[in-house]
Amino acid sequence: MEPASIYEQIHQFTNRANPYPLYAELRETPVARLEDGGYVVSTYEEIVALLHDPRVSSDRRKLAHPPPGEPLPPSFIGTDPPEHDRLRRLAMRHFGPPHSPRVVENMRGELHEIVKDLIDGVAGRTQADIVDDIAYPFPVTVICRLLGVPREDEPRFHAWAEQIVENIGPGEGDQDERAKRRTAAVLALATYLGELAQAHRRNPGDDMLSGLATYEGPDGSLSDTELITTAALLLVAGHETTVNLITNGMLTLLRNPGLIERIRDEPDLIIHTVEELLRFEPPVHFLPQRVALDDITIAGVTIPKGSSIVLALASGSRDPAHVHDPERFDPDRPYIQHLGFGGGIHHCFGAPLARLEAQIALRELAKRLVNPRLVTDPPPYRPNSTLRGPRHLLVEYDRVLPYRP
Amino acid sequence: MPARIDGGVAVRVVVDLTRCQGYGQCVFLAPDVFTMHGQEALMYDTDPDDAQREHVLRAAAACPVQALHVDRMATQHRTVEPELRHPTSDVDGEFKRNGHIVIVGASLAGGRAAGVLRRDGFKGKVTLIGDEKHQPYDRPPLSKQVLTGRVDAEHTMLPHLREIEVEWLAGTPATGLDIGAKQVTLADGRQIGFDKVLIATGARARPWPIEAEAALDGVYVLRTLDEADRMRRRLAAGVNRVLIIGAGFTGSEVASVCRGLDLEVTVVEAGPAPLVGALGRVIGDIAAGMQRDAGVDLRCGVTVTELVGDEQGRLTGARLSDGGTVEADMAVVALGAVRNVEWLEGSGLAAGPWGVATDAGCRAVDINGLVTDDIFVAGDVARFPHPVYHYQFMSLEHWGNAVAQAEIAAHNMLSDQAHRWPHLSLPVFWSNQFGVNIKSVGVTSIADEVVIAQGSVEERRFVAVYGYKGRITAAVTFDQAMWLDFYRDLIERATPFPPDYRMVGRPDEMRPVPAEVPQRMAPAAGATVVVTGHDPAERRVSLVRQQP
Ligand SMILES: Cc1cc2nc3c(=O)[nH]c(=O)nc-3n(C[C@H](O)[C@H](O)[C@H](O)COP(=O)(O)OP(=O)(O)OC[C@H]3O[C@@H](n4cnc5c(N)ncnc54)[C@H](O)[C@@H]3O)c2cc1C
Ligand code: HEM
Ligand code: SF4
Questions:
Q1: What domains does chain B contain, in order, with CATH numbers?
Q2: Does ipTM exceed 0.90?
Q3: 3-state secondary structure of B353
Q4: Is residue A405 included in any domain, yes or no?
Q5: Using CB atoms and an 8 Å cut-off, which of residues 7-66 of chain A contact chain B?
Q6: What pLDDT score does B340 carry?
Q7: pTM of the prediction?
Q8: Shortest Cα distance from B520 to chain A (angstroms)?
Q9: Gap between the Cα atoms of B178 and A124, Å rounded
Q10: pLDDT tens per residue across span A202-222
Q11: A136: domain range?
Q12: 3-state helix, strand, coil in chain A (%, to 5)
């Protein structure tokens, strides 16, 4: 079969529930040319090499045929050094090392509180939707508090964020229509965040948005546009991915008998379980945005300069040349190295927070739901093949135990 | 009887800083254990409280390059399934069941080799002979965290021995090796017989050449835990000015720590700038800027001619070759290392100031140039030919090399001809100083040209690439560790220099300049090889035709 058509099949909605056999086929050609002239890379070593290859850009404006103008300049996920490094440093200053190493660790108590309340909320019933009841509201509440975005505004930006991510990567339907929807959502979100940032600038709190809006130092400060694109990136990235990790996590735990009990009984096991999830059922399946700045020869194929490159992260993490017995979910592996958060200079900014969120949510679910079981397997999926996850995950249980620290 | 070595300490942490790319995930998840100095220079507590255990486990699981080892150490040479034993021979011989392997030198290389012997299925007896009384410990923190007082010197023990059964003879220097009788002689007169032996006696600090001056109170060298501990206590007791003699890596790191403690520091360097011996003039000048910006009184092109003391034998200062003087109550002699080969005198091995010569599989070579069968060498004491660098013999003082060689040596000790591995790892090195993480891959000292390929020298975030006769031979990064592997691959593939690609972060002009490295290695115009394969069982070189 033509490799390009395997790639197309992967994006067809019918294959959303289990794209993994197709990834195995895709890996037979580690670097495959697509019909649109782009390339898809699907094996671990090659993906890692390209993530660390300075000839690979994240800036779509550098394509041989750049896409039509976007409403806003790209946020730092879509820029290259030195611009990327400066913007990421300015954002990191308020989130992690070297200047704020304790921000995430200090949120731990708060994260437990939020999860406790959410699970309390399903205690009166014997069925819950993991997505709507836990996995979605949890990270949203967290990112709102972190950024300083009012939780009440959630329905508004949720709609925009959905529009933005649903239209990331190749998809089905009219491309122009998708682009138009995306643009409208980006502009609406930008206007909202711009006003909010101005309010924080006048009246700063101890949230990230205030920090971003007011900081000035050796790296300069964020311009108004940079402030908006950075805040939008954090808001969207921080809430459309973790939901899938928690949901995929619960689904995987329930598909593997005995795991829930082990996670309940062995406190440290959740740490490796989440890593194995990021390998086995990752929220981000593709990085669709890379550009070759020069001719790049890899695995015997020369990717011409100006080409678009898709990195098939989820395929790479199941490459049998990298992991032994890759199609088995095994949190007891001696070491787990995966592509769940990408790699290189764009390695996920929020990874420590996402890990902690998933560890806490999954362990608490394992501890508190008595005899949980899946209602439908496979569950219904969201259309997106790049940020892949269930739309709903119905779980039945006998009862809910009270929270115990 | 074999004894199980177990320090009984709660958590032991080692970061393989040759792998670390400065992602900082560990700092997020265990901020009491890991700290970031500047953008990428990672420091850590090697032996945190038991209360930190969960945090440390989270951090280790999260490290994107799996560089962080808790309690036990994974191996450098990763294969698909790291815990699977590597085939060593087609028959599981009597030697592997009942043989006796003696390792001389109980430090990084020796300890690591013991671990790999067990991993690869050696069931016989392992004797580890060390002249220090301590369990194997990690040296890089000694010139970094330990001097600041952030980590106690005793808390730098390496975790890798805890699960390994060895007979451990501590505080017992070896004084001789008899190849014919297959015996090691100890200082106390004991003779230890062996089937195979690994020489891993490393190096020691080169002392100040004038003995009476070296004996002054306040004069220090830094190689061992005891030496680091003495220095730390002296620093904690209060010092007015520290004189550092020699601005190589150790001297520069000590200068950085002392400035961090807000002490007055004078660095005296014979060469034109710091780090020139290892990295050449271009980087040296950048390093000089870093030192001066940090408030170091840096004097280059000058040597110390005399250390001066008072009547009580306390150091008061030094006289310099340019007629100048420095007042100092503490001096750190950082003039490099001397290889510990004296005990091999008369053994018939090709041992000298540059170490013990080996083949590419870590087997010792005798003075006739013949390869021995049962004598292996690993770590700082080894002098080995590297195919990528025209089969030149090299002697390194690099953590990563000691580990990689120990693994190859141990594997080969158990392997027959068909299963032996060559030691093909490119040299890698890191140093943390003045808030900058400096890393290198390859060999800089043969280079004739260097070019800044990415980043900005003004910001001290850049990649410098070294070339020799139109091939890339090395790369050095300042706070840009994430790009290093790309250049490693270019070196392994014998890629042309300069690396003239369209790249992110590429400076406006890419202009090679003379490398100005002291020509310590003069490579013969030889064959050019490329290295292929990631798994050590598959890594091989192949010859490429020379371009005219
Ligand atoms: C202060 C300091 C900082 C460093 N920082 C870095 C860094 O940042 N990055 C990096 O890559 N590398 C660094 N290194 C280098 C690294 O630590 C060495 O490469 C590594 O320790 C080599 O290990 P080894 O086992 O070969 O030798 P060693 O560690 O020298 O061990 C040899 C052991 O053998 C013992 N011995 C010697 N003679 C005998 C004998 N006759 N009988 C019995 N035992 C004997 C010695 O006492 C010693 O314990 C640093 C070294 C020092 C000292
Ligand atoms: C399980 C949850 C998450 C997953 C799987 C995930 C995955 C990823 C991946 C794969 C990338 C790399 C993108 C690229 O290279 O182009 C990335 C980047 C990024 N992520 Fe996440 N992410 C998660 C959660 C978060 C959270 C909670 C935040 C915010 C707090 C966040 C913020 C970002 C940002 C800002 C980037 C861009 C980094 C850069 O370009 O330097 N992510 N993420
Ligand atoms: S690469 Fe690993 S060890 Fe290095 S800073 Fe990152 S998480 Fe820590």
A1: 13-70 (3.30.70.20), 94-203+339-413 (3.50.50.60), 211-335 (3.50.50.60), 435-516 (3.30.390.30)
A2: yes
A3: coil
A4: no
A5: 45, 49, 52-57
A6: 98
A7: 0.93
A8: 31
A9: 80
A10: 999 999 999 999 999 888 899
A11: 6-400
A12: 50, 10, 40
